Amino acid sequence: MAYSWFKAFHIIGIVVWFAGLFYLVRLFIYHVEANQEPEPARTILKNQYQIMEKRLYDIITTPGMIVTVAMAIGIISTEPEILKEPWLHFKLLFVAMLLAYHHYCGRLMKKLAADECRWSSQHLRALNEAPTLMLVVIVMLAVFKNNLPTDLTAWLIFGLIIFMAVTIQLYAKIRKRNKEKLMAQMPQVPQTQN
C-alpha cells in the first residue's frame, strides 16, 4: 500500500514541478522582453514579473521538485531491487539533469532580478524546450523500462517533438520580426517641451 501512496504523490509532484518549470522560463522571456517597453511600463512589468517568478519558484516549482524526489526515494525504499535496473540509471541521469536545470533557473531568476541576465528572449525560448525533452525521455523510460522502442514509430514521435520545438522557435522569430516592422511603420510622435 505504501508503494501506491508514494507513486500517486510522485506523479502529483511531477505534474506540479513541470508546470512550474514550463511557466517559469516563459516568465523569464516576458521579463527580458519588458526591456523593450518604454518607461514607466518597463519598470512596472519587470517588477511584476520578478514577483511572479519568485512566487512560482518558491511556492510551486521547488515544493513540486521536493515532493517528486521524496516520493521517488519512498518508491525505491519499497522496491530496493529496482536500483539494479539499467533503465532506472538512465532515468536518474535525466532527473539529475532536470535538477540542475531547476537550480539553473533559480540562478537566472536572481540575475534577472539584479538586471544582470544577458540571455535574449530567443535563447530563453530554446532553454524552455529542455524540460519538455527531458520529460519525454523520463516518461518513456518509466513506461517502457528496458524495452524502450527503437522502431520507426518511436523515431517518428521523436521527430514530431523536435519539429514542434523548431516550429515554436520559428513562430517566435516571425512574431518578433512582425512586431519590429509594425513599430517601424508607426508614426513617431514628436516630443513637446513644457
From TrEMBL:
Name the Enzyme Commission number(s) assigned to this protein: 1.3.99.-
Any GO MF annotation of the entry? metal ion binding
Does the keyword Cell membrane belong to this entry? yes
Q: Which UniProt keywords apply?
A: Cell membrane, Heme, Iron, Membrane, Metal-binding, Oxidoreductase, Transmembrane, Transmembrane helix
Q: How does it sit in the membrane?
A: Multi-pass membrane protein
User: Quick one: which residues bind heme?
Assistant: H10, K91
Q: Which spans are transmembrane here?
A: 6-25, 56-76, 88-105, 126-146, 152-172
Secretion signal span: none
The pathway where this protein functions is:
Porphyrin-containing compound metabolism; protoporphyrin-IX biosynthesis; protoporphyrin-IX from protoporphyrinogen-IX: step 1/1
Keyword set includes Transmembrane: yes
Q: How is the cofactor bound?
A: Binds 1 heme b (iron(II)-protoporphyrin IX) group per subunit.
Q: Which cofactor does it need?
A: heme b
Which processes are annotated in GO (biological process)? protoporphyrinogen IX biosynthetic process
Q: Which GO terms describe its cellular component?
A: plasma membrane
Identify which top EC class this enzyme belongs to: oxidoreductase
Pfam families assigned: UPF0093
List where in the cell it is found.
Cell membrane
Q: What is its main location?
A: membrane
Q: Which reaction does it catalyse?
A: protoporphyrinogen IX + 3 A = protoporphyrin IX + 3 AH2
InterPro entries from the xrefs?
A: HemJ-like
The record describes its quaternary structure and partners as: Homodimer.
Function, please? Answer: Catalyzes the oxidation of protoporphyrinogen IX to protoporphyrin IX.
Question: Per the similarity annotation, which family is this?
Answer: Belongs to the HemJ family.
This protein is called what? Protoporphyrinogen IX oxidase
Task: Give the organism the record lists.
Answer: Richelia sinica FACHB-800
Source lineage: Bacteria, Bacillati, Cyanobacteriota, Cyanophyceae, Nostocales
